Task: inverse folding
């Protein structure tokens, strides 16, 4: 099942980069929780359920003119997946451009995403996933 979990995460990254919340939510459990980090935390720190997650994504994409994720490494951890890469962002109003480390720890159950936590540093993401530095 875990290789399939990696594919679920990668489909989610692709949906994110396409700004397609509906596509992202096709692999999410109804009780999914999204915990955005830093510039992604537009309105709140935790979004629960499909409706809140879709609302959070929409708010973020309105704030950031660009917000793309580029993969560097993926670690299959069985019931979870750790994604390490870069976030390339451009502010909608400020036009400020950022290019920084970005980490995503995704927990899955029965092939569905139940929790997603994002981090602005790889070390924080690794720690959250229970990996040694």
Result:
């Amino acid at each position: 099942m875990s290789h399939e979990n990696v594919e679920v995460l990668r489909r989610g990254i692709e949906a994110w980069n396409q700004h397609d919340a509906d596509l992202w939510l096709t692999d999410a459990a109804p009780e999914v929780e999204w915990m955005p980090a830093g510039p992604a935390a537009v309105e709140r720190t935790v979004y629960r359920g499909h409706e809140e997650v879709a609302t959070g994504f929409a708010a973020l994409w309105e704030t950031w003119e660009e917000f793309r994720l580029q993969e560097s490494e993926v670690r299959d951890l069985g019931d979870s997946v750790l994604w390490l890469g870069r976030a390339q962002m451009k502010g909608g109003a400020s036009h400020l451009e950022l290019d920084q480390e970005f980490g995503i720890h995704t927990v899955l159950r029965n092939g569905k995403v139940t929790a997603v936590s994002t981090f602005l540093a790889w070390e924080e993401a690794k720690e959250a996933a229970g990996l040694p530095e």
Observations:
- Residues 1 and 111 are 7 Å apart (CA to CA).
- The first helix runs from residue 2 to 17.
